[in-house]
UniProtKB/TrEMBL annotation:
Top-level taxon of the source organism: Eukaryota
Protein name as it appears in the record: Uncharacterized protein
Length: 145
């Protein structure tokens, strides 16, 4: 769905004034260079709510406050291996009860994606020495081996 440019408050009020003056939707649209359907929508909104302002949409308010969002974003940015459970506990200590899914959604909204850390064997200096010793011993081995 393509978003068109938004009409200014003046234009919307002008549409309502012209409608009250008795002009048709198509005449108003031609005069102001706006689509007839847009004019109709603005007039319908004005008749229902007596306003041309942008009204808030429906939906539940955010569980995590903007401050909480900054906190978890900062935590994950500093240490990417932080688990969602850790973040849930952090927020619970701060007084906000949320689920792991809410944490995931919030981080995704902030542009941070989750991924599993790759399992990389941790080589200790002993292992490195053993590998080097093996490699040195087998330097002169023929290609077939």
């Amino acid at each position: 769905m393509a978003k068109t440019k938004e009409l200014s408050k003046d234009t919307r009020n002008k549409i309502v004034d012209l409608h009250q003056a008795g002009k048709t939707e198509s005449a108003i649209g031609k005069q102001l260079g706006v689509k007839k359907s847009t004019v109709g929508a603005i007039i319908r909104k004005w008749k229902t709510y007596k306003t041309t302002d942008n009204l808030p949409r429906s939906g539940a308010p955010r569980k995590i406050s903007p401050r909480g969002v900054k906190m978890i974003t900062r935590t994950v940015s500093k240490n990417p291996r932080t688990t969602r459970g850790d973040l849930v506990n952090d927020l619970q200590r701060a007084g906000t009860k949320v689920t792991k899914a809410t944490i995931s959604n919030t981080l995704r909204r902030q542009g941070l994606k989750s991924c599993s850390a790759r399992r990389v064997p941790l080589l200790k200096p002993v292992h490195v020495q053993a590998r080097l010793k093996f490699a040195r011993e087998h330097l002169d081995d023929p290609e077939e081996d």
